[in-house]
Design a protein that fits this description.
531 residues; 80% helix
Length: 531
């Protein structure tokens, strides 16, 4: 039974990620996804290679070779923990098919081990992103014997089990807390956003972190030796080839893992089927409030969209980044001005640069490109309701605009205040990105009507791995490149930059009108043909 569960889980993963259907579009999508994964992998590998290549020589000169592997292990644990703690909470404690599987003749142990196996695979992928560059750097500088390589392989194979012990405990704490909170989705979204901000902050400060590691290697070594018992013995076992340290490390890995696994197995049914206490709501007689059809459909779209934190995060990541950038622009305005002052002639392009930056961030918003697909098995509800197709599509369009336009307005006001734009320039900085956002919203909705996807199991598939989302983002980013590159190559000698911005504004007014007309004609007809 365990083998059958793993097979189903793996097939489901590959179907959602790469789409095994033998069609031309599926092959192109598979190639695009593989190229994206390869790009992300190369970026991480290069970043960690730079870090380890910088610290290995200073640590060797300080006779702290073991600290090199200790830092590698700490970084693996941190990356795996951040990358899998919410997945562990979702897969073990809040999986939607828990009750279905428990109703079958399947033991809770098999269900739990199957889910842990998938998390373990993800942890190994995270581990390789750090371990591969670390080992390449190490063996470029140091000699290694066969026994050391064997110990290192044992360490790399077992280290994710230490991470899984931590993530299972933390995921249980998160699950228990979430069951007692009302606004669970908002909290998950805030936590993911916090991790996202911390990641970019860490990347921006990586050079200073490297210098800190180099300058404070001795004090860091003492702290790890006293406070991180398993990490210290892991590093010593690899560097000095000490079987006793390896045994200590393995005990600290597998004993806690076995205890946590036993507790989870024996309490799996109770933990996964426990329901939060429902607060009794007293009925109070009130007058019935009526809304028009469009506003009711919009509220429906809004509630559906806000019900999944991952859908929100992937759909409005551009707006979140614009708001963060607006706050940073106001807080660090003097630093920004000093930086811009070092770039010659940039003062002539303030308005255009602010517009282009806002458009670039907004190009990451792909809400409308997945709204039709998100209907899924509930599509029939809209089909049987006595509502016009144009109202349904307008509600979806309004959802995209309501989520994205405020960010551009906030950034436009912040940029105008910092750089002292006049009234006309402020209107341009606000208006042009919003016109482009309307273009993205219309084109995304039309593409989703052209190629809807209803065979998803998890809603995040619609916002991460669907063709309309990919094409919408590709068109939006290509448009950003085209606007900037087009002026530099074609219009620099003929049109002033402000006149070019006005021309772009007028062009998008015409394009938006054309796309809206297309949506109300072709889009309505396409919606009515979808079953």
């Amino acid at each position: 039974m365990m083998k059958a569960l793993l097979k189903i889980k793996l097939l489901s993963f590959f179907k959602q990620t790469l789409q095994n259907k033998k069609t031309k579009q599926s092959k192109l999508k598979t190639i695009a996804m593989l190229l994206l994964f390869a790009y992300v992998g190369v970026v991480f590998l290069g970043m960690f290679y730079l870090l380890f290549d910088t610290i290995i020589e200073p640590f060797h000169l300080l006779n702290l070779d073991w600290l090199y592997f200790a830092i590698m292990a700490v970084m693996v644990i941190m990356l795996c923990f951040i990358g899998s703690v919410f997945l562990t909470e979702h897969e073990i404690y809040e999986a939607k098919d828990n009750e279905l599987l428990l109703a079958m003749p399947i033991t809770s142990r098999d269900i739990l081990l199957c889910r842990l196996f998938m998390i373990l695979i993800l942890d190994y992928v995270f581990e390789l992103l750090i371990a591969v560059p670390a080992l390449i750097v190490y063996y470029r500088h140091m000699a290694a014997g066969l026994l050391q390589i064997l110990i290192l392989l044992i360490v790399l194979f077992t280290l994710p089990f230490l991470v899984m012990t931590l993530t299972m405990i933390m995921a249980w704490i998160v699950a228990m807390i979430m069951k007692k909170l009302r606004h669970k989705n908002l909290i998950v979204l805030v936590l993911w956003l916090l991790f996202f901000v911390l990641y970019f902050f860490g990347v921006s400060k990586i050079q200073s972190y490297i210098m800190y590691l180099v300058e404070n290697g001795t004090s860091i070594a003492r702290a790890i030796e006293k406070g991180l018992f398993p990490i210290y013995h892991l590093a010593v076992a690899v560097t000095d080839i000490k079987p006793l340290s390896l045994m200590y490390y393995l005990l600290t890995v597998f004993v806690p893992f076995a205890v946590v696994l036993y507790l989870l197995t024996t309490n799996f049914i109770r933990l996964t089927t426990a329901k939060p206490k429902q607060k009794k709501i007293k009925y109070h007689e009130q007058a019935l409030k009526q809304k028009n059809i469009l506003s009711s459909l919009f509220v429906r779209e809004l509630k559906h969209f806000l019900s999944n934190p991952m859908v929100i995060l992937n759909g409005v990541i551009g707006s979140l980044m614009i708001i963060i950038a607006s706050a940073a622009l106001i807080i660090y305005q003097q630093d920004v001005k000093d930086f811009i002052a070092q770039i010659p002639f940039l003062d002539k392009y303030f308005v255009a640069a602010a517009c282009l930056f806002s458009i670039a961030m907004g190009s990451l918003n792909t809400i409308s490109a997945s709204l039709v697909s998100l209907e899924g098995k509930n599509l029939w509800i809209l089909k049987v309701l006595p509502v016009q197709s144009r109202d349904v599509l307008m509600a979806k369009l309004l959802l995209h605009l309501s989520m994205c336009l405020p960010g551009h307005i906030i950034f436009g006001i912040a940029a105008s205040w910092v750089f002292r734009f006049g009234m006309i320039d402020m209107m341009i900085v606000v208006m042009v990105p919003n016109l482009v956002t309307l273009f993205v919203a219309l084109s995304g909705l039309l593409l989703n009507l052209w190629k809807p996807r209803f065979d998803w199991i998890n809603e995040t598939v619609c916002v991460k791995q669907s063709l309309p989302v990919f094409l919408t983002m590709l068109v939006a980013m290509g448009m950003v490149f085209g606007i900037g590159y087009g002026y530099i190559k074609l219009f620099t000698d003929y049109i002033a930059i402000n006149d070019y911005v006005y021309m772009i504004c007028f062009a998008f007014v015409l394009i938006d009108i054309a796309l809206y007309t297309l949506l109300m004609r072709y889009g309505v007809k396409k919606w009515e043909q979808i079953y």
